[in-house]
Sequence to fold (590 residues):
Amino acid sequence: MSRNVLVFFVLCILLNPLIVKASTDTLEDNWNDFLHYTVIGRFDLAAGFAQKIIDSNSDPLALLKLSEDNPRGYAIVVRIHADNPELAPLAAKILDIIEKGRFMRRTDTEIIAEEIKRLSSTVRGKYTAIERLRNAGEYAIPFMLEALADEQRKDEFPAITTTLPEIGKAAVRPLTASLVMDNVVVKGEVIKALGKIGYPEALGYLKYIAENDSSDQLRSLATESINQIDSASADKSAAELFFATANNYYYKAESLAPSTDGNTANIWFWDKQTARLTRQEVDKIYFHELMTTRCCEWALRADKDFGQAISLWLAAFFRVDGKDIKYPEYFGTGHANAMTYATTAGPEYLHEALERAIKDNDKIVALGAVEALARNAGEKSLMYRLKTSQPLVEALSFNDRIVKYSAAIAMAIAEPTEKFAESELVVNNLADALTAQADANWPAEKADNYAFRSAQAMLKLAETRNKVIDLTGALDALVKATGDQRDEMKIFSCQILAYMSSPEAQRAIAEAALKQDNSIDIRISSFEALATSAKINANQLLDNQIDQIYKIVESLETNETLRSSAATAFGALNLPSRKVKDLILNQAKI
Fold:
């Protein structure tokens, strides 16, 4: 046997235990090794064991148990996820598996059903069941209500009703959603449970029953529960209480945070056909906004004239659209976007939403409200005053240029006829939008959009000879824009300058018309603008500009359409007849 072969066999014998261990490593071994090498700073080795946990399609429930048996180890994983760039991506995947295990355990329908039945067993069994149902939280409520409504399970009724409030705060959202049920007996128990839980989110729903339910008994129970939760709310209307809850959701009150793990949260509904609770998973990123809209809708059900709920609903929906993710499934197909509702709502509610956005420094809502106002509001609506404030006027000074520009455009296209102190701000914002250069924070597409919208608004003001918004403040920007890289902007700027009486304006138009680097179309359009300027303001050109225009007119080699437009402009200047005489004689034959 050769020496090399002998060495090979020796190595195989020596390494065999390691090979066997590698093939028989359990999830627990990988978990412990991952933690061990992380603690001693051997992140390269730790990463290998972390990858084994991920690649082995580990049982989430088993990994959850390991994390719960070793709380210190779980804390280490959380810490490296936050502080260790090298291991953070792997730690994130491991934490996701653990959270999946937690979700599986909490939502296991068989376990929940067994624990509900255990409530009616021994005293010890009941206490164990209560603890497990409390851990299941909101997921237990549909099964508990279903059991309460089951005529064949009447003997379980007392145990379940006493346990219902024990679930605590997590039970409130599904319980309040169930209050539209027709089963009076179960509904009464839900009302009593909400009173015992004592959580303010239930107040609006309870007051709605106290105000509207056909059952005297349920109205009385609802009033009792309201007093248990907050006796000071007894004198408030259901609409007021719903609005207060909506407001708390809108500002993401910590007490209203979803109780679910992971990246989703539940919104609960009552299915009248099946007479049971259903849930819709939604992205946590807009959970609070969706709950805001639901509470606002309830406020309007309680009082159709409660207008504050409309403006808050719009603000929340603008935020939903601002997340730029798919609408939740319960919206159904063809659900209109926030702008559709906003333009339908009218200026009063938009101004209220805008006022809120300005106070909150909320760019998304402010921009949505301003853009909606720009689409369909007239002068009176745009200058709307809420007590001592004028939201759209205040938006002209917002600390985000998109909002400022949009507000200025809205004011301009409304063609105001009554003077207001901030008109100069309108012009300044329009001028800024016209000339703002694209950069990392202002991409070219957005720069073009606002520049052209600003130009269109200024042209409308110029053409209508608006006396309120003086475009003189934008003169420098407009003159600069005649040399813009965008051809359409050159044309717009000349068209606007045509209505301004400044010699600088008319001369800038002439320069654009005479500039040979410009395309024929731009030069023709500029000569047309020059003709308009001459008709309105008479001749304000320099002599050398006049001479250059005349050379174009008399040239036989110039583009015929360009020559014609130059001649029109020349004639509109109403100059002494000598040049015209020269033109006639130059073509005459002796």
Residues 5-23 have pLDDT under 50 and may be disordered.
